[in-house]
Backbone:
């Protein structure tokens, strides 16, 4: 029996219909961005997750000009500043290009709307109360994503996997580093490794949610390099004596470890000038409120 394949002209018609449908779908997304019905950061997130999606097929040039207040001249300037070729589609952006574009738009949109949903890093010396303040924010401000870190240290009594930390062994931590799955990582107090999983942070920021990282000072510096749009908040104790009281009162470290942490704390306190904001943790709920308020505050130019 003869084989009957689809005639080439039928293939061509189907392909051209599909191309028309894809063009219309892309035009609809662009129109929704211009009308303010779709958040441009959300479109960028979808394109990153699925480069073959309608969003992924939109050219970066068209994407930018569909954002109100970005005309053709500005668009060309931004493309040059961001180092993105005009031929690129959203789905074809590399990780660094997407991150630069997202950071740029986050700041621009925040400046226009007055809303500064952003990445806030909370750091400060040992026992100042970072974990306590961050825990208060998790409970009382559910709109803010509190990033859950991975660590090689063992769980303490009362700590829960996936809530306090992701407790992993050295081999798994090495794998996370190799796979580029950590936004930053550091060996803290010369003991264990801690790192911020990149995926949940980027997803939350792309969908317009504010994110809080409670990490050490080395990590804060690394976040500043990776995401310059982040605000760095330094949590201070009311006094050195109170810091020592909190560390000893917590009773989670033995004497030598307490001593080691206090030595590190002196070095860490000297890093305060590298931070955008300072919050004194005298009262937990007041300090938490101040940190959340900073998510809506334009950070000072450095
Ligand atoms: N405002 C506050 N007033 C009094 N005690 C506080 C206050 N904030 C935190 N504490 C207490 O201080 C101790 C240290 O707090 P916490 O463990 O949150 O510090 P940390 O900065 O996360 O420490 P580390 O970096 O070592 O993990 C805890 O016992 C906590 O209950
Ligand atoms: N650089 C990072 N530091 C982190 C991260 N998660 C927590 N930390 C810091 O580690 C110390 C010790 O924490 P503990 O729970 O063992 O007392 C503390 O200063 C945290 O801020 C992270 O992902 N990256």
Residues:
């Amino acid at each position: 029996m003869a084989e009957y394949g689809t005639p080439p002209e039928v293939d061509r018609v189907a392909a051209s219909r599909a191309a028309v449908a894809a063009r219309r779908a892309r035009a609809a997304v662009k129109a929704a961005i211009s009308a303010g019905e779709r958040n441009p950061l959300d479109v960028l997130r979808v394109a990153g997750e699925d480069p073959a999606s309608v969003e992924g097929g939109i050219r970066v040039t068209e994407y930018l000009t569909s954002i109100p207040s970005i005309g053709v001249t500005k668009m060309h300037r931004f493309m040059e500043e961001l180092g993105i070729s005009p031929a690129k589609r959203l789905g074809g952006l590399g990780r660094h290009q997407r991150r630069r574009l997202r950071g740029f738009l986050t700041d621009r949109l925040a400046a226009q709307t007055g809303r500064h949903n952003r990445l806030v890093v909370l750091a400060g010396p040992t026992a100042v109360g970072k974990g306590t303040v961050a825990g208060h924010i998790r409970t009382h401000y559910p709109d803010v994503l509190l990033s859950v870190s991975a660590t090689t240290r063992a769980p303490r009594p009362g700590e829960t996997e996936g809530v306090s930390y992701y407790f992993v062994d050295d081999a798994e931590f090495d794998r996370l580093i190799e796979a580029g799955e950590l936004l930053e990582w550091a060996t803290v107090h010369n003991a264990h490794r801690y790192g911020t999983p990149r995926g949940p942070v980027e997803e939350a920021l792309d969908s317009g949610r504010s994110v809080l990282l409670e990490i050490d000072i080395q990590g804060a510096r690394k976040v500043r390099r990776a995401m310059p749009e982040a605000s760095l908040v330094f949590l201070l104790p009311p006094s050195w004596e109170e810091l020592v009281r909190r560390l000893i009162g917590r009773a989670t470290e033995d004497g030598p470890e307490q001593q080691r942490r206090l030595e590190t704390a002196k070095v860490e306190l000297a890093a305060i000038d590298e931070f955008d904001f300072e919050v004194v943790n005298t009262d937990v709920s007041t300090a938490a409120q101040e940190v959340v308020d900073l998510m809506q505050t334009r950070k000072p130019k450095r």
Notes: Residues 8-34 form the longest helix (27 residues). The chain has two domains: 2-113, 119-293. The chain has twelve helices and nine strands.
